[in-house]
Amino acid sequence: MTETVVTRFAPSPTGFLHIGGARTALFNWLFAKAQGGKMLLRIEDTDRARSTEAAIAAILDGLQWLGLDWDGEPTFQFARADRHREAVEQMLAAGRAYRCYASAEELEQMRATAQAEGRPPRYDGRWRDRPASEAPEGRAPAIRLKAPTEGETVIDDLVQGRVVIPNKDLDDLVLLRSDGTPTYMLAVVVDDHDMGVTHVIRGVDHLTNAARQTQIYEAMGWAVPKMAHIPLIHGPDGAKLSKRHGALGVEAYREMGFLPAALRNYLARLGWSHGDDEIFSTEQAVAWFDIGSVGRSAARFDLLKLQNLNGHYMRDTPDDELMAALKTALPHLPGGPDFSARLDASGRWEAFRLALPGLKERAKTLVELVDGARFLIDERPLAVEPAAAGLLTSDARDLLARLSERLSALEPWTAEGAEAVVRAVADDAGVKLGALAQPLRAALTGRKTSPGIFDVLVALGREESLGRIEDQASPPRAA
């Protein structure tokens, strides 16, 4: 019988879901989907001082926005403390753990001595084989793993390859603190075992933890899950990823106007590849994903590449779907709620829909899409940008006056009909089309750039278009 693949994403709720965590979640999700398995979610909230309900909500919201669902209800690690202590009792009974009565001062002296001798700080095992009768009166013990002192601990990592760590380099780690609280190392192992996790996919910074956790599995007599430690993410300059590179929370990318599908595509390519394919659907990613194709080198996060990819997704998304995505995103975009309210108040959602094909050709994010569409909600008389105002010369205003008269008779009001009129007015005046079209754009939008000017005329409609043109046209000259 084939084993069902079970992965897990296990964030600590001490802050937002950052971009590295999102990629880890994505790789777990893709691998589980590709193998017909399950991805579980565990909130590792044992750090009570730093874990917050707001952070938990942000993580869940970020995963849901990214479209990364999980199976079953989230598991909360702190609530399982009794089960963690139960596992320690089993190790004590089996002689695989022991009570350590070393004081904080003794532990500090060990660290100082190791540092002075140029050695890594390690517990020296002084309580490993001492009888309980020697325990200091009134001192609560910590419980330590009785780790093997000879041989090697081997991790056959699905990404990093075979990793061998001499056991002499690993000391007897603490399983339960002297106040009875479980440590992270213990809790992770017990939870992964009890949740039936078959594959642990996480950042390479956990590789050292893997050796210690393997020893706990072996002490409990449990099968060790397969492990895959994926490379870290660096900035485009090769330095450790920081906020200046884009090391932000997932919610920041929503606020910057990225589409979830585009971000999934981009994150999937950070460390994993499928031939030369750069742009692919989530369905293709699921079909193609192979953890063995994840490289060992650090991936490089490039915000400009993400923006370009997002622009491709926006252009390829059908207008109705993009409209729906925008309406969902507007509450989270800078100025989005105001933009939405003003479209509602002016009844210009249909105008936005008509302008969308031209708008999305020029935008790389939903924020740019909204910015490009602001001319739809601007009130007359328009505030014309300085660069566009330079187009409204005296001659241009005369041309606009002639155009206004001719357009007022246009029936029906269509892009094709408007184009014919504009071209005819330009021909009659003996000027190139741009000499009229550019001032017309400035009059209609207040800007030098916009969707196709004939599409703008249709989106604004007859009355609004003529009103804006007349606001900028020269008054009729006296006979």
From TrEMBL:
Residues 5-307 form the Glutamyl/glutaminyl-tRNA synthetase class Ib catalytic domain. The lineage of its organism: Bacteria, Pseudomonadati, Pseudomonadota, Alphaproteobacteria, Hyphomicrobiales. This is Glutamate--tRNA ligase. Pfam families: Anticodon_2, tRNA-synt_1c. A motif ('HIGH' region) lies at residues 11-21. SUPFAM superfamilies: An anticodon-binding domain of class I aminoacyl-tRNA synthetases, Nucleotidylyl transferase. It catalyses: tRNA(Glu) + L-glutamate + ATP = L-glutamyl-tRNA(Glu) + AMP + diphosphate. Residues 119-132 have a biased composition (Basic and acidic residues). It comes from the Bacteria. Residues 350-471 form the Aminoacyl-tRNA synthetase class I anticodon-binding domain. Residues 112-138 are annotated as: Disordered. One of its GO terms (molecular function) is glutamate-tRNA ligase activity. Monomer. Keywords: Aminoacyl-tRNA synthetase, ATP-binding, Cytoplasm, Ligase, Nucleotide-binding, Protein biosynthesis. Belongs to the class-I aminoacyl-tRNA synthetase family. Glutamate--tRNA ligase type 1 subfamily. GO terms for biological process: glutamyl-tRNA aminoacylation. ATP binds at residue 243. Its main location: cytoplasm. A motif ('KMSKS' region) lies at residues 240-244.
